[in-house]
Amino acid sequence: MENNTTIGFIGAGNMSYALISGLINNGYSNKKIKASDANTELLSQRSSEFNLEVFTDNSELAINCDVVVLAVKPQVLSTVCRDIKNFIKHKPLVLSIAAGVKSIDINRWLGGKASIVRAMPNTPALLGKGVTGIYANAKVSEKQKSIGEEILNSVGSCLWVENEVLLDAVTSLSGSGPAYFFLMIESMTKAGAALGLDKKIAQELSIQTALGAGMMASNSENVSIRQLRANVTSPNGTTEAAINSFQDQNFELIVSRAMRAAFERARTIGAELGDDD
Ligand SMILES: NC(=O)c1ccc[n+]([C@@H]2O[C@H](COP(=O)([O-])OP(=O)(O)OC[C@H]3O[C@@H](n4cnc5c(N)ncnc54)[C@H](OP(=O)(O)O)[C@@H]3O)[C@@H](O)[C@H]2O)c1
């Protein structure tokens, strides 16, 4: 991305903090980043942390930016869009990271002709280790797509989906996914403690195992995940005993049902958030 693209963040909370840090750590000039927020205390904090130009008026920010990142809670997104509707005649890219709110609703609130990229990041983005599903509406140019991609890559990696409904699938997988792994860590910690380990030791063993397994899965380009599992599952060994127990209780079905529930909930929330006229 050229360092002359001006990026404005509406909502200077946690996700904006992660994205602004990511951009600056990747060499992007703080002179080209702006932020607006309803919370003036937070705004002056961001201004002194990053030396950014900040605004209390969202429309003043929008009129000055090539990219407007909508980083407020989904419930206030319609208000924010209406604030800036008359200040985007210069056709900035609108990048929404608000969970669940559909591009068709954002576009309607913005007056109907906006170039919108919608992204679903996840919480590890706060550590620069996020993964984001990203979708562009038909108005978005190739150049704007690559700008959106670069912004999100500054906090991890991102993957395009062709159809917006697939962002609900992304939500059910990577959006909510960190909590599934936390649940696994909690369960393994409790089970380890029940087998006699000190709780702190059980927790550390669980966390480091999750981290190590994740890194092995991520680094093993030529070995399938199934093969990685087979490699540590000796016939008649301890791991096989555990895997058989998981499978007896239909682990795959449990995961699939849980993710279907998250997917359906994402769709319902999206419909509710768009239905506010
Ligand atoms: N955190 C995550 O891991 C994560 C992951 C995926 C997606 N997201 C999405 O990212 C978005 C931002 O999340 P977040 O965790 O960064 O939220 P956050 O920390 O609450 O930040 C949002 C900020 O927007 C401000 N705000 C409220 N109304 C405003 C208005 N009308 N104009 C300008 N600013 C306003 C809030 O101020 P007040 O506090 O005073 O209201 C707050 O400072 C959400 O839509 C969320 O769904 C977050």
Short description:
The protein is of the alpha/beta class and 277 residues long. It has twelve helices and eight strands.
How would you describe this protein?
- The longest helix has 24 residues, at 251-274.
- The chain has two domains: 7-162, NAD(P)-binding Rossmann-like Domain (Rossmann fold, 3-Layer(aba) Sandwich), CATH 3.40.50; 177-268, ProC C-terminal domain-like (ProC C-terminal domain-like fold, Orthogonal Bundle), CATH 1.10.3730.
- Helix 6 (142-153) links the parallel strand 7 (130-136) and strand 8 (156-160).
- 53% of the residues lie in helices and 13% in strands.
- Helix 7 packs across helix 12 (251-274) and helix 8 (177-194) packs across helix 9 (199-219).
- The protein has helices at 14-25, 40-50, 58-63, 77-84, 103-109, 142-153, 166-175, 177-194, 199-219, 225-231, 238-248, 251-274, and strands at residues 7-10, 33-36, 53-55, 67-70, 93-96, 115-120, 130-136, 156-160.
- The chain is built from twelve helices and eight strands.
- It starts with 6 loop residues before the first strand and ends with a helix.
- The chain is an alpha/beta fold and 277 residues long.
- An eight-stranded mixed sheet has the order 3-2-1-4-5-6-7-8, with helices on both faces.
- The mean pLDDT is 95.
- Bound molecules: NADP nicotinamide-adenine-dinucleotide phosphate.
- NADP nicotinamide-adenine-dinucleotide phosphate binds next to helix 1 and helix 4.
